[in-house]
Amino acid sequence: MSKVFGETSTTEDVLSGINLKGKRFLVTGVSAGIGVETARALVAHGAQVVGTARDLKKAETATVEVRTAAAAGNGSFEVVELDLASLASVRAAGDVLMKKGDSFDAFIANAGVMATPFGHTMDGFETQFGTNHLGHFVLINRIASLLCGRLISLASSGHRFANVDLEDPNFEHTPYDPWVAYGRSKTANILFAVAFDQRHRDRGVRAAAVHPGGIQTELTRHLDPAVTKVMVEQINQQLAAEGKGPLQLKTIPQGAATSVWAAVVTSADEIGGHYCENCHVSQTLPDDKQISVSSEGVRGYALDSKVAEALWKKSEALVGKSF
């Protein structure tokens, strides 16, 4: 009988007894938080991990424990430079990986930004949509032939803040709201997993989106503490109305657990084309159901295959490349 995991499960819980020797993983965003823990857990169980980071010096400092775990677990770890906010950097990183030609059992698209001030990537895209979605869209498609197992796209319950807006992805005609922009980008992460799964399942490659949960990491660096306090109070009021206790943040090992569970532990057919949280496939919510952002559930619009296809075509048009 398979083990049952949940919201308090850690990376070590889900990988208990699993030997990953000979398995290869690509993990974006290994200079802080969940990315570092994801890499550490995998190499500790014998995996070969290629991480990516925009700032290689920062990543070197942040991943000392990863390298130690790799040595102890007979795994390996290396870092490739990648700035998701620059398509030139994305393409260069993709070319480095393609030149090496090593396949990956899973690609964990972990890196991202949250609730940033209004701005643009190097290519003129709104910062969050450009970094969280388009950067990964180009990288993953550029090296898709190297992927022989699973794509795990890190999303968020924040997808419930907004659906994608394919008519105005860069807020050229819409007043900018950092949380709406974040919601759009996280919905895009889910829709991309849906579309990628549809395109690659016939060759045995499956894709899923995961929500790590509420965790205190560098992702919150753009948030005003006063605003955060108000948001937490509002969330707790919503939770109380749902008959639940106050918000409990996860530890980083708990936050990384669903990524690892989806990439390694559960069956690919169980998660393919789905949204997962707390180490299980999540229920689909009616789009009009009001719930706390910390409660479980995925909006139907984030799993809509027609919207996923439309986003794919729009993304191709924006980056100037068909995949």
What does this structure look like?
The protein has one domain (11-215, 251-316): Rossmann fold, CATH 3.40.50. It is built from twelve helices and ten strands. It has helices spanning 11-14, 33-44, 56-62, 64-73, 87-100, 127-142, 178-200, 225-241, 252-255, 257-265, 268-271, 305-319, and strands at 24-28, 48-53, 76-81, 104-109, 147-154, 206-211, 275-277, 280-281, 284-285, 298-299. Helix 2 (33-44) packs parallel to helix 4, helix 5 packs parallel to helix 6 and helix 6 runs parallel beside helix 7. The mean pLDDT is 93.
Mean pLDDT: 93
Q: Any idea what the CATH superfamily is called? A: NAD(P)-binding Rossmann-like Domain
Q: Strands of the biggest beta sheet: in what spatial order?
A: 3-2-1-4-5-6-7-8
Rg from C-alpha positions?
18 Å
Overall strand count: 10
- What sort of overall outline do the alpha carbons produce when their principal axes are compared? globular
Q: How far is it from the N-terminal to the C-terminal residue, by CA?
A: 40 Å
Strand content: 5-15%
Task: Pick out its properties.
Rossmann fold, 10 strands, 323 residues, two-stranded parallel sheet, 12 helices, globular, 8-stranded mixed beta sheet, alpha/beta
Write the layout of secondary structure elements.
Elements: H1 11-14, E1 24-28, H2 33-44, E2 48-53, H3 56-62, H4 64-73, E3 76-81, H5 87-100, E4 104-109, H6 127-142, E5 147-154, H7 178-200, E6 206-211, H8 225-241, H9 252-255, H10 257-265, H11 268-271, E7 275-277, E8 280-281, E9 284-285, E10 298-299, H12 305-319
Parallel strand pairs: 1-2, 1-4, 2-3, 4-5, 5-6, 6-7, 9-10
Antiparallel strand pairs: 7-8
Helix pairs in contact: 2-4, 5-6, 6-7, 7-12
